[in-house]
Automatic annotation (TrEMBL):
<dbReference type="InterPro" id="IPR047594">
    <property type="entry name" value="MoaC_bact/euk"/>
</dbReference>
<dbReference type="GO" id="GO:0061799">
    <property type="term" value="F:cyclic pyranopterin monophosphate synthase activity"/>
</dbReference>
<protein>
    <recommendedName>
        <fullName>Cyclic pyranopterin monophosphate synthase</fullName>
        <ecNumber>4.6.1.17</ecNumber>
    </recommendedName>
</protein>
<feature type="active site">
    <location>
        <position position="125"/>
    </location>
</feature>
<dbReference type="InterPro" id="IPR002820">
    <property type="entry name" value="Mopterin_CF_biosynth-C_dom"/>
</dbReference>
<keyword id="KW-0501">Molybdenum cofactor biosynthesis</keyword>
<comment type="function">
    <text>Catalyzes the conversion of (8S)-3',8-cyclo-7,8-dihydroguanosine 5'-triphosphate to cyclic pyranopterin monophosphate (cPMP).</text>
</comment>
<dbReference type="InterPro" id="IPR036522">
    <property type="entry name" value="MoaC_sf"/>
</dbReference>
<comment type="pathway">
    <text>Cofactor biosynthesis; molybdopterin biosynthesis.</text>
</comment>
<dbReference type="Pfam" id="PF01967">
    <property type="entry name" value="MoaC"/>
</dbReference>
<dbReference type="InterPro" id="IPR023045">
    <property type="entry name" value="MoaC"/>
</dbReference>
<dbReference type="InterPro" id="IPR050105">
    <property type="entry name" value="MoCo_biosynth_MoaA/MoaC"/>
</dbReference>
<comment type="similarity">
    <text>Belongs to the MoaC family.</text>
</comment>
<feature type="binding site">
    <location>
        <begin position="73"/>
        <end position="75"/>
    </location>
    <ligand>
        <name>substrate</name>
    </ligand>
</feature>
<keyword id="KW-0456">Lyase</keyword>
<feature type="binding site">
    <location>
        <begin position="110"/>
        <end position="111"/>
    </location>
    <ligand>
        <name>substrate</name>
    </ligand>
</feature>
<feature type="domain" description="Molybdopterin cofactor biosynthesis C (MoaC)">
    <location>
        <begin position="13"/>
        <end position="147"/>
    </location>
</feature>
Amino acid sequence: MLTHLDSQGRANMVDVTDKAVTAREAVAQAVVRMRAETLDMIVSGGHPKGDVFAVARIAGIQAAKKTSDLIPLCHPLMLTSVKVELSAHGTDAVLVVARCKLAGQTGVEMEALTAASVAALTIYDMCKAVDRGMTIESVRVLEKLGGKSGHFTAAES
């Protein structure tokens, strides 16, 4: 049984020693809501701080690689691929989609969620001077593949 509690009820990192190494992949998303003018500024490349999508993409990739430093009891993983895609979503939002892959003994959901979250936070940070009302929403796992629990796809929302 996998648990974060040891026999005395203390928090513990899950022991994955006996788990098989398999291909694993996870996809997560975040949505950053903003004023239409803010989105236009980002998409047109007119932001005074530079290319918001490029900076957010790099931040998301770096964050995925550092997930075990940020989330207690999360295993340090050797990711083989991290992709962060950003796009306009309607007239007032940016959709962030992060995909993480590896061959390993544990899943990469936390890495994908961290990548999407930090990319969204980076957009907020770069744009907060022009739009303080931005919100970060819908941070969730969209899909998980591999491992003992198999394939998971989130229901549409």
